[in-house]
Task: inverse folding
């Protein structure tokens, strides 16, 4: 249960909206509960997020056209943990700072949402969910070097988009 917020945030990034994400997380929690005996130890957050990721792709394949599953959605997503933290910090500084923080968070969120799915997924898992390269590599069944290159490319694309939007 302590990782439920992270699970919902990941599902939101993968599905593109809160309602679908809630369905995915509910399904993932049922799978996690059913498979708790097979949990081999390690990072429980990474284990749950792997189940959420797999559940999200299964749900997307079942409920959306293949083109959307492969490309991902670039629509503006609902409020994320990142945006909530930025907003909370800004509120302590005053209303002007709050508006600036909300605008900046929305710009960053849109830049991340516009990434191709493989880059967005690695960026969200590393920079938002704080998983290690090794955990991400195991979750996605790719080499650590691929995780690093996708993360570097994703960060570069986000920075380029932020520069264009200024």
Result:
């Amino acid at each position: 249960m302590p990782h439920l917020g992270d699970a919902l945030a990941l599902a939101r990034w993968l599905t593109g909206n809160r309602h679908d994400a809630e369905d995915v997380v509910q399904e993932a929690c049922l799978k996690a509960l059913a498979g708790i005996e097979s949990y081999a130890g390690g990072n429980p957050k990474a284990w749950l997020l792997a189940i959420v990721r797999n559940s999200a792709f299964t749900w997307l394949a079942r409920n959306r056209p293949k083109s959307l599953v492969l490309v991902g959605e670039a629509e503006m997503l609902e409020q994320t943990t990142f945006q909530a933290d930025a907003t909370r910090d800004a509120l302590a500084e005053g209303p002007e700072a709050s508006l600036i923080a909300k605008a900046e968070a929305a710009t960053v969120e849109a830049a991340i949402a516009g990434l191709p799915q493989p880059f967005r997924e690695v960026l969200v898992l590393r920079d938002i969910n704080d998983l290690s390269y090794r955990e991400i590599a195991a979750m996605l069944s790719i080499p650590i070097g691929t995780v690093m290159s996708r993360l570097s490319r994703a960060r570069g694309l986000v920075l380029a988009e932020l520069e264009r939007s200024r």
User: Anything to note?
Assistant: Residues 137 and 145 are 9 Å apart (CA to CA).
